[in-house]
Class A beta-lactamase-related serine hydrolase
Amino acid sequence: MRVPPLAAVVLASLLAGCAGTTANTRGAPSPDASTVDSLFRDYDGPDRPGASVVVIHDGQVVLRRAYGLARLEGHEPATPDSNYRLASLTKQFTATAILLLVQDGRLGLDDRMVDVLPGFPAALREVRVRHLLQHTSGLWDYEEFVPASQPVQVKDRDVLALLSGVDRTYFPPGTAVRYSNSGYAVLALLVEQVSGMPFARFLDERVFVPSGMRSTVAHEEGVSQVPRRAYGYAVDPSGFIPRDQSPTSAVLGDGGIYSSVVDLVAWDRALDSEVLLRTETRKQAWTPPALPNGMSSRYGFGWFVDDDGGRQRLSHHGETCGFTNAIVKYPEQRLSVIVLTNRAGGSPWTLAQGVADLWLDRPAKDGPPTNRPWPFETLPNAH
């Protein structure tokens, strides 16, 4: 039986209920739940895939809602406990796993991948661990080598095999930014190599349990189960159709975690404490690198990082077969908004920012999102 260190704290936060009265970041009363409900009306109904949303402010859950269905077959309603495939929100967990090994003294951010991961292409000897974390490696996207008709799902180990014949990167490592799912699949293999345990087990023992995430899992078909699982859907002219898996859905490091907004409250608390990472390590993760051309990247270790009107904003979007998700976090304002949906498409990043704007006491913006991090993922190659 798990006894997570943060369990009592998380339970206390959840007792705050769906819509709290905690003051927002400018001292005004918090928005009521009906204001948020209006933003999610497209997900609310008895016949459509759903969404779960949570707002965490000053360490408390001030709003927690769910809409629509977790599974259309059987009309299973979505709840805050529904577990969605996180897609690229997984990358912050993979980055944390690497940083734990760095804190342990078993790995260095400037280690060359050829020196620490057997089988990494010898021609790419200048690629270092930090380059993969920051998407500055120039590593080729493994999806380019996976045909749509692929009969067997690709796994992390297969990604390394797919890259084995690569003899160059898109650009010299460390000189530019190009979002690459390959880098995070390879990082999962590096965790296994250095820790001596499967990636999914490392995450469970070193990240999920210490954080108090009781139902989160890096899912492996036939190995693990996803409790209260939400299933993915897409839209076609006939309505919503099942779209839960693709040839790349079994890769763990870039997008294979399932979690709920309830568990992600525990994750958010762990991020804001030293339960997992020391303060100086966390600061590194939330600081994008300067590039040789004088430009600053907008990606740290598993997070997009930018400035929003003088506020540091952390964010990430995740999109994969049947799921689209977003997280927006303002560390200094102690405000986080997480939106998980089991529908391909949509714009959870706009919804998350719109909800955050309510607590920042500014009107939500209409039209295209202004905060959408670049370069963003799009189907079918996103995770």
